[in-house]
Amino acid sequence: MKIVSFFAGAGGLDLGFQQAGFNVVWANEYDKEIWETYEKNHPQTTLDKRSIMDIPADDVPECDGIIGGPPCQSWSAAGAARGIKDQRGQLFYDFIRILEAKQPKFFLAENVSGMLISKHSEALDGIKELFKNAGMGYELSFQMLNAADYEVPQDRKRVFFIGIRKDLDFKYLFPTETFPKITLESAISDLTESALPALEFNNTNGDDCTIPNHEYMIGGFSTIYMSRNRVRSWDEQSFTIQAGGRHAPIHPQAPKMKFIEQDVRVFVPGKEDLYRRLSVRECARIQTFPNDFIFHYNKVAAGYKMIGNAVPVNLAKHIAFSIKTQIGEAEKKQKLVINKKLKIENTLS
After folding, report:
1. Cβ–Cβ under 8 Å, residues 169 and 334
2. Active-site residue among 63, 72, 209, 283?
3. What is the pTM of this model?
4. Confidence tier at 339 by pLDDT (50, 70, 90)
5. Could you tell me the CA-to-CA distances from 241 to 32, 143, 285 in Å, in that order?
6. What is the phi/psi pair of residue 168, to 5°?
7. Which of 13, 66, 131, 235 is the most exposed place for a label (fewest CB within 10 A)?
């Protein structure tokens, strides 16, 4: 099935769908810092570099599915949480505009769990109704998932809207299969000794990294960062990989931070040299990007941003496979019904 991708970023969601057998024929990404990374890792996909607001629906190829993660900052509980009142939050409407015009068999929209806080309830209900009523209409499924349940070594809760066009006559069911938890030791232990600190001003080491992108941001830690433990042990899953390198989790080689008082922790005295941020490559591994997926940037912060904003590849793959399977079963069922009717009509005639 052919799909198009909006707000594609580096393409974690796209790659997961490709691994599940979909063909991503066209993608849209407005951030110029990401273009090189997307194009070099998705050479078979046409990349449109305009803002979605400037893209006429007729410019979007005919497709079986539309996927994407409209910018999440507006909905983040940790930020201003302005939601649909923010211009970035309103990009949901352009996503729906394209959906209504193209009428694919399905769509997927992903966003942060902050959408579920009470102040957004009215806007969220409105978005759900717009999705349900787009064009011919869609049967909407909506759920918060934790990537840790889908072969991703990370606690990462995100909400997913998945709609199935009503003429397909079924409601999508989210995957219920369970998988063993993947630990940090399994995911990144082989990378421990080879990471490089970023260069001055957090510039990239470039080709001096023997393992591509295996470099970590340098610089101090804010009081907000030091207010709680930022270390997960080797036998645990990572904290959420965020889009800012300043907030990258600490590598599990370090002991958990020492509690001083409420909202105050410190690195264990005498062990300070063990406390470094996870590298860009380690964050990519935790987001389940393959080793041959190379991120291109000049500032290390841009690497963290691309990775932190992505949908984990394995989570995307499991969802994509379930969508493909359920649509296939529905279409097979409809074909059987049609063939049965034709057989009856031929018998009567």
Report:
1. yes
2. 72
3. 0.93
4. confident
5. 22, 20, 11
6. -80, -15
7. 235
Per the annotation, the verdict on 72 as an active-site residue is yes
The predicted structure's pLDDT at residue 73: 55
Q: Alpha-carbon distance 147 to 322, whole Å?
A: 15
Helix, strand and coil content of the chain, in percent to the nearest 5, comes to 40, 15, 40
Give the DSSP letter string of 226-291.
Answer: GGS--B--TTSPBPPPPS-GGGPPBPTTSPPPEEEETTEEEPPTT-GGG--BPPHHHHHHHTT--T
DSSP alpha helix (H) spans, the chain: 12-19, 32-41, 91-102, 121-133, 184-188, 280-286, 300-308, 313-348
Q: What is the pLDDT of residue 338?
A: 82
Q: Which residue, among 13, 120, 141, 8, has the nearest Cα to 75 in the 3D structure?
A: 120
pLDDT at 124: 82
75 within 8 A of 115, measured Cβ to Cβ: yes
Q: What is the pLDDT of residue 79?
A: 46
Considering all CA atoms of the chain, what is the largest pairwise distance in Å, rounded to the nearest integer? 90
Q: pLDDT-based confidence at 99, cuts 50/70/90?
A: very high
DSSP three-state, residue 307:
helix
Q: Is 144 helix (H, G, I), strand (E, B) or coil?
A: strand
pLDDT at 81 > cutoff 50: no
Burial class (CB in 10 A: 0-12, 13-18, 19+), 135: middle
Query: What residue segments make up the domains of the chain, in order of their start?
Result: 2-178+316-341, 184-308
User: Domain 184-308: which topology?
Assistant: DNA Methylase; Chain A, domain 2 (3.90.120)
User: What tokens were used for 279?
Assistant: 């590298």
3-state secondary structure of 140: strand
